[in-house]
Specification:
The chain is an alpha/beta fold and 164 residues long. It is built from four helices and six strands. The protein has helices spanning 28-43, 57-70, 88-96, 113-121, and strands at residues 2-8, 50-54, 77-80, 104-109, 134-139, 153-158. Helix 2 links the parallel strand 2 (50-54) and strand 3 (77-80).
Length: 164
């Protein structure tokens, strides 16, 4: 059995210091939401064994705050350059290549890709995965390479401010 958590990065600044989209920082609200997301997962007893994140600054910062709130080390985060501006097919390919010893995987990335990803790997129909929100899905598979063979079973959806 595998659990996949698909998370959009938290709220960001409109512009970066260097003018690039890639290097936009989280806002104070985004940092707080990312920490709250980690605490929410901990409370739900959903503990990722690995985090696969876009290497864009806002996604990496989101992943780092989640890990910290879970009491884990940043060594569990893998930053992936190709997740930035990737199509959902590319993200599925990256997930499919994850080591099968990993039972719970958190992926952190961007829209519109991650909203499309949710639709591709589950029966859940969402219009927009908002900043800092995530969905947890369970798969009755043994290998991540089997991800495309079935749709994920919906476990829960959460978004800031992560009540209950």
């Amino acid at each position: 059995m595998k659990t996949l958590i698909i998370m959009r990065h938290a709220k960001t600044e409109m512009h970066s210091i260097d003018g690039t989209d890639f290097s936009r920082h989280l806002t104070a609200e985004g940092f707080a939401a990312s920490t709250a997301a980690g605490k929410y997962l901990f409370k739900k007893q959903i503990m990722p064994n690995k985090i696969l994140s876009s290497s864009a600054l806002r996604a990496a910062q989101t992943a780092q705050k989640v890990v910290s709130a879970l009491g884990q080390t940043e060594s569990m985060i893998e930053l992936e350059d190709s997740m930035y501006n990737a199509a959902e097919k590319r993200v599925v390919s990256l997930i499919s290549a994850v080591d099968n010893e990993i039972d719970t995987l958190l992926v952190v990335g961007h829209n519109p890709t991650f909203t499309k990803l949710v639709r591709k790997v589950s029966e859940v129909r969402i219009d927009n995965l908002t900043p800092g929100s995530f969905i947890a899905l369970r798969y009755h598979i043994n290998n991540w390479s089997e991800l495309g063979t079935q749709k994920g079973e919906f476990l829960f959806f959460a978004r800031p401010p992560f009540a209950g």
